[in-house]
Amino acid sequence: MLIVHHLNDSRSQRVLWLLEELDIAYEIKKYQRTPQQLAPEELKAVNPLGTAPVITDGSVTLAESGAVIEYIIRKYANGKAQPPESGEVDDLYYTHYTEGSLMPLVVNRLVLGLVVDKAPFFIRPLISLLVSQILSRVLDPRLKLHAALIETHLSRSSTGWFAGGDEPTSADYMIIFALEAWSGLCPDMLGSNTKAFIERVHNRPAYKRSIEKGGPYAFARL
Questions:
Q1: What span, in angstroms and rounded, lies between the C-alpha atoms of 78 and 186?
Q2: What gap in Å lies between CA 24 and CA 72, rounded to an integer?
Q3: Count of other CB atoms within 10 angstroms of residue 75
């Protein structure tokens, strides 16, 4: 049986959502982050890098979100999660765009916030000023470009999904985690169509089941 090695508050939540949408049998092995918000050492027994998501499926062990999503859709979707012909290029692009272009910026913004929070109190004002300059001059202008790209694309989708079909596809499963994390950091950057997309995902019964089975998830706002 397919096993999802699920780290709380991680990219593996997107895999649980996909599996619930496909309504296939699977097991969850849960891993909890340390007090320092790192993955536990035991996850390295499955993936030497100690990152999630990871799945095992018989003799197959596979990590990396994009690879896992693609593998599951290819093997188990039975015609579901397929983009319409008119949306195939968009599905391909946004599937790879998420981790290739968007997530590095979101992660950098998250890390910079932690740098300020963890700085010794006597140098915190200086660190805060430095981080503020990095955000305003470098990171946030880039994020605003991405916000505009996503908002414009979704405004042209008659169904609200990235590939323009009647159901979510790999692009949607990939991008939801990035948008959830981003909305928690700076929600004012996101446009109305982007926020509606997040809400649409969160209102789906399959997504709600994925939260129930996966456990507490800091980025869910149901």
A1: 38
A2: 10
A3: 12
Q: What is the pTM of this model?
A: 0.93
The model's pLDDT over 7-44, given as tens digits with 9 standing for 90+, comes to: 888 999 999 999 999 999 999 999 988 887 778 889 99
Q: Are 63 and 47 in contact (CB under 8 A)?
A: yes
Low-confidence ranges of the chain (pLDDT < 50): 222
Provide CB contacts within 8 A for 151, sequence distance 6+: 190, 191, 192, 193, 194
Query: Domains in the chain, start-ordered, CATH in brackets?
Result: 2-77 (3.40.30.10), 85-204 (1.20.1050.10)
- Cβ(65)–Cβ(11) below 8 Å: yes
The amino acid at residue 66 is G
CA distance 197 to 171: 12
